Amino acid sequence: MSIAYWCILIAALLPYLWVSVAKKSGERYNNRDPRDWQARQTNPRSNRAHAAHLNGFESFPVFVAGVLMAQLAGVAPTTVNLLAIVFVVARVLHGVFYVANVQALRSLVWLVGFASAIALIVMAALKIG
Predict the structure, then answer these.
(1) What is the DSSP string of 66-118?
(2) How far apart are CA 27 and CA 51, in angstroms?
(3) Residue-wise pLDDT tens digits, 8-36
(4) For the chain, what is the mean pLDDT?
(5) What confidence tens digit (pLDDT) does each residue in 89-112 have?
(6) By CB neighbour count within 10 A (0-12 exposed, 13-18 middle, 19+ buried), where does 42 fall?
(7) For 64, phi and psi rounded to 5 degrees?
């Protein structure tokens, strides 16, 4: 199960990767008021990287819930690990495609990541029920 736990750590850190891209892509970063600084950015790459940053936080709770629920319900560790890896790979690609402005692939990998997290929750519910 440790692979799935490492995937949780990676998923927790990914939003910070995308926000660092946003900060490097915009005007000279000002840490005194980071939210206002981001709101003033006109560089599309900075804005897309910031959106990837926010989306990373949005997707994180469902993934963590899925991993922990599946583990507690006794879903096979290989299945949990595989779905966790799929989620992380999808989230990395989601950020890459977001920053690169490739909408169709971004949406596709978002769906793959979301489906893997939901699959973990459904498997846990079925295992218990």
Answers:
(1) HHHHHHHHT--HHHHHHHHHHHHHHHHHHHHHHHHT-HHHHHHHHHHHHHHHH
(2) 17
(3) 999 999 999 999 999 898 888 778 888 88
(4) 95
(5) 999 999 999 999 999 999 999 999
(6) exposed
(7) -60, -45
Radius of gyration of the chain (CA): 16
Tokens matching residue 1: 């199960």
Q: Which of 91, 121, 122 lies closest to 108, judged by CA?
A: 91
Question: pTM for the full model?
Answer: 0.93
Q: Which amino acid is at 121?
A: I
Distance CA 37, CA 29 (A): 7
What are residue 20's phi and psi, to 5 degrees?
-70, -35
pLDDT value, residue 28: 82
Please choose, from the candidates 111, 13, 112, the residue with its C-alpha nearest in 3D space to the C-alpha of residue 57.
13
How far is Cα of residue 122 from the mean position of the Cα atoms in its chain? Answer: 19
The type of residue at 45 is R
Element (H, E) at 37: helix 34-39
